[in-house]
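WARN no homologs supplied; continuing
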Amino acid sequence: MKTRLLIIIGIVSASTIISFILLMTIFGYCDGSPFCENFTESVGLFSNDPQTFCESMDARWDTDHCIIRQESFEFNNMTCDPGTVLENETCHSNGIKFVLESFVEPIQNTNNVKVTGSPAYTICMDLALECDYENFSTSFVGTKKGDEIIIPLHLEGRGQNYTVHLDAAAVENMDGNYVKNIEVVTEDKPVDYSVDEHSKIDLFSIPLLIDKKYNHVDYGKLGHLVAEHDLKSKLVEKNIEYSKGKYIFQNGFTLTSYPPISGYCAFIESDDGEDYWYEGGFSRDTLTFSKLHDSNPHLCKTNEGSCTCSIVKQQAIENVGVLSYFDDIKEKSVGNALQKYLTETNVSNVSNQFVVGKYNFDYDDDVISFCGKFVESSPRNTFEGSIKESKVTSFSMRPPMELCAINDDAIIYEFKYLENEK
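OK structure emitted
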């Protein structure tokens, strides 16, 4: 049986390299080179000094055994006695007894248990708590009920009560999927989403939104609230007044790490007829950038996307009025150019028949915006693109588009799949 041991990966150092070479040698991975063999002879194998070897793995030596707290490294040639969520696992390898510390310990004379290690670390991460990540010394007290470990938490600064439900079997098997659900009860109190002089917000002074799908802090929504608060503060500072219908704030592009790095933008038309544009970014607890512009900082361009351009397109949809269509000459010109493009790029997974129409959105004077659909119906069969000097400069699949105008008698074009040609 292979036992998974969690190794906290840090900066590669001399001690890390030494530990790695020891592991290779101990478990039969030494390549037989003079360096490898001479090194192991000089430091001595763990059979002579088990404590040194134990501590070289960032583990703890206790009298006659090595206590391991890590889980995601596999030792070969190791046999382990089966354990449960409330009992330690004992592993033996080449004369040394390894004990995998339990993440849950019963509290004497009570029905409660103390949760430590990775499950505690996960709770800290999911709720953005300040915990001892390095030494894994943080613990939470809960109650084991059936297949769950239930941990009540109260964070006075946030005005929130949490109930964290851990999967007891996941803790027992150390599979990492510890948190089943996080229930949140928010007390009624004013919330200030202002940032300090370092552009940071105190996560312990505000109620946090929990993403119910993933059971952790929804930093995207939090960033939205912080950035929008920042924008409105800037508008007040500049005495810019506006009506609700002349204000658009939306999410931009997001780097989906955890915590994510999120962008936001806005358009404001003031009561005196002036236009303003806003850009902001947020990550975990920091407003990474924010600026109010008196013109659009990112004009729409083909093959490029931006948050502010998406607002411009949304405005075009709302104000489109009557759509305009290609005439016969323009439709044939676009259709022939796209037919050649689709053949040369060997597009697949779509019908080889399509129709084109006019996309009622202008980029530059010398760019023709087109749209269309592949004849066979499918969940994704509509597209959008642009042509410049009779060549397709951009093409992408898009959902049904309000700005797309296709003639009822549009010509059906057909292209060939290169893979079928001989």
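Residues 328-420 form one domain.
OK
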